[in-house]
């Protein structure tokens, strides 16, 4: 079970929801330096805050980044992803003119696809067993 400080509350719900996101660069090109990644984390942290989400963890390499995001049930992951990728691409292009050479085709930094996986909590087998063991009304 989640630690007590991680449990968040909404108007009508109590929740702990995390998603692991992975974004790769267009054509999997090696694009990012440490300076790019440091600024990208700041940008993505700000976008998450706009969605009432928390960027719990961020890391990346030259061709991809990983994010662990704590998010409320009202946030659609696809909308969060679109904003994270769009805002980061636009701001990085403005702030780092050296990235322009990586936008040579289709003016895109990111691949159109992404990975999203739920994270945290108990394994599905444990949850399934818990639900199966609940008393049924007679």
From TrEMBL:
It comes from the Bacteria. It comes from Streptomyces hirsutus. InterPro entries: Transposase_17, Transposase_17_sf. Residues 14-134 form the Transposase IS200-like domain. SMART domains: Y1_Tnp. This is IS200/IS605 family transposase.
């Amino acid at each position: 079970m989640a630690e007590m400080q991680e449990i968040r509350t909404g108007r009508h719900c109590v929740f702990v929801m995390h998603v692991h996101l992975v974004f790769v660069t267009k054509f999997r090109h090696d694009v990012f330096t440490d300076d790019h990644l440091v600024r990208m984390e700041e940008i993505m942290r700000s976008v998450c805050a706009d969605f009432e989400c928390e960027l719990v963890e961020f890391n990346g390499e030259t061709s991809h980044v990983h994010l662990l995001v704590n998010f409320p049930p009202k946030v659609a992951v696809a909308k969060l992803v679109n904003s994270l990728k769009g805002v980061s691409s636009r701001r990085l292009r403005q702030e780092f003119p050296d990235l322009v050479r990586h936008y040579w085709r289709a003016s895109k930094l990111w691949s159109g696809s992404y990975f999203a996986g739920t994270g945290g909590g108990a394994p599905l087998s444990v949850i399934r067993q818990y639900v199966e063991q609940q008393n049924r009304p007679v």
